[in-house]
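[Automated response] Your request has been received and processed.

Submitted sequence:
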Amino acid sequence: MQSLFSSAKDIAKGVRLAADTAVWAGNTVSRHIKGGKTGICLVCNNLQPYGHEDMFGRPSAAWNQINDPQQAARKKQLASVPTLVLEEISTKKILESREVDPQTGRPKNDCKYCRLLCEIFDAYFIDEWMSWVTETINGMPIQVGLMIREGQPLIINCWNFTYDKWFQNPRVDLELYMDPMPPSPIPGAPAMGPVGSRAADVRSEECMRFMKESINECCREHPGCAARPNGFVPTRLIYVGGGKDALRLCDAISKRENVVWAALSHCWGGGKPLSLTKSTLDNFKEHIDFSELPSTFQDAISVTRELGLSYVWIDSLCIVQDDKTDWEKEAALMGEVYSRAFIVISGASSSNPSTPYLRPREEEWLPKRFNFPIAPGANIPIMVRQRHLLAAPLDQGLLEPPFTSSWATLKKVGPLYARGWCFQESFLASRILNFAPGAIIYECRTHRKSEDQLPPYPSTVPGSLGEVSPLEQWHMIVKSYTSRQLTFTSDKLPAIAGAATIMPQVRTSKYLAGLWSESLLLDLLWQVMPGRAHQPLMTKEHEENAPTWSWASMNWGVVWNSVQDPQFLASVVDARTNVVGANPYGQVSGGTITLRGRIKYCRLSADYHSNEHWVYYQKADGSYSRKQHFRTDGALESWAIVPGQTDPSARRSRVTTSGIALETGAAFFCIAKSHWMHRNHMGLILGTSPRFPQWKERVGSISNLPKDWYDTGVDATITIV
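Generated structure:
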């Protein structure tokens, strides 16, 4: 009987989805038919949220509801305020508002709202290096998104308008508003709302007031942000309580003193700021000359004193830089230093120690003014400014907790946010002041607010958008972290060790070079982000510091595909790493994993000119299977395991970029299969290790193989290094 009711519910749900899809399609057709008569632009919807089939709260297509039911539900909840998100608008369509139709003598798309967008893009995205117009004409993949919500600033998402070496699909967000904001909407104007004031100088009184009021409010009203005492005190701290002339290094501070401290997160930027060494240790205990400190350190001391604190922790002054043992010991404690700090000061706008963050803002962060015609002869001023923080999806409402897709993906703006060490420093903080290029941003475990933002503020309480498993949390952490740069490859694992030590897996699992023993088979299925398949992503230095099965062996970002309830087709026989130093979550010098399962020997071909990588195998009748695409671990090369051998094997390229084409031997090792679709087997693409020819090395991963690859394989026990 239960199955009958379930079937009835499924049928009813299917009927509702079909009905919603029909209504959605009808609204779409109606808008396109009426658009020309009503003057509503089919490209930008006149920068208004009204009347569009994708407006929050209206029936949506079935595939949208099935693909992300939580998102569909949230859109219905947020529909009390008219809201519209247009995710992908072609800049070619927007540019047609300027192009004259030779037959009619009028613009191909006579839309003054699209022309406003063109003027804004001209002001922000035309310089001596690039032009958004040229990029559009040349067919480059630049696109626009609009986030329109009544009563809030209108957000323009600008994808690929700028170049970013380390981030795929870089995005810049702009916000439109009026200053002052009229008491009621102006007919014909874009839908906009008020914004907060953004100071032109970070040293201003209003910035200092925002900083102190935010922290005081947090201490009074946010019980979840208070650090739980555990008796930890950093080995060394800089005493600033006596003023600039009384700075000194303190060590052996008693845990009974109830010491609170600020911790600085900053860019070294390739420079060598004043540092603690064996030779300066005794002198620093006596006195540290404020004038000899770089600007970022001076600013950190000024902020610490402004907040009424007596101690600050700065890595280069609190860790003996020429003592490897001290560095390893203190690096292992960084998680405690940053998580137990009263406040973390993030010098996000400084690319190096000599660049202060308490300074006037650069002009690019100040608003620009545009005149918009609401009627013939009548213009209104519209202000536009670049956002310092990319806008979270509107369907999240006022929820921006950790471990959402936007948390793992969206890039904060500022040099520091591209640095690997910065990730855990901000992730671990209970409170953090981000001195970003565009604004001061205060974040705690309760909410996030910036100096130019009006309340209410987005919640950052974990779990606000549903539970995320520890496995998914770790994968998001690694995704965000590996999108950043590191100066030294040996820092790859130490720079995320602090985050690893607070994961729930610590209590039940063994840590293996960035993977966890309890989820090892799924952890092995990481994939390299697109963008550098033709370049070596594993240097000799990476090889010395991580095994090929670890994402830490890659000089590029990695991701995982979501796999629901996988059926594992392999088992772990043994897994071990060679830990360097005393920190089990820190640096390693290689490691091995032995797996038992089924392997299929195959051929690997790559065309780096067209960015294509394939595997296939020869059938019993001599014919070849259909080629299957896989995600490569960067550039590969072919090498003969034994000199003169006719059938070479794939391996990762360590030094040089691969040529245009590659054809060689490889193997597919199956790890699991999913419960949907026919092409549902997944696993690793393996070559032979040049250092240990009896073992395998990982060269890629694949997630959509048909079952014949598994059925025709052979049972084997393999070791991957």
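Summary generated for your ticket: The chain is about 25% helix and 25% strand. Residues 74 and 396 are 7 Å apart (CA to CA).
If you did not submit this request, please reply to this message.
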